[in-house]
Amino acid sequence: MLKDANENGVKLSHQAPTLYDVVPKEEIAEFEEVMRKTIADIVSEASGVACWVYVQKYVKHKTLDEMLQEWSGASKFILAMDTWFERLMAE
Length: 91
What we know:
The chain is mostly helical. It is built from five helices and no strands. It has helices spanning 2-8, 19-22, 25-59, 64-70, 75-90.
């Protein structure tokens, strides 16, 4: 029936419930708060690493390899920030 509706434009007689019809408002509010905190934590952590890379690169004049050796756990982010700073400073 769904395939027929999708391929041939057949109208379905029922309407899918919205999230608010299925999940209580309290659970939605709790989920939204958890997501808000998670996103804030990600932004805060990313900002901290970006500042660290900036200081290492432009204040302490460390190379990318030195930064990666010092903080290998953040290697992908360090590489991305180093590249971004290079492009930003070139402009």
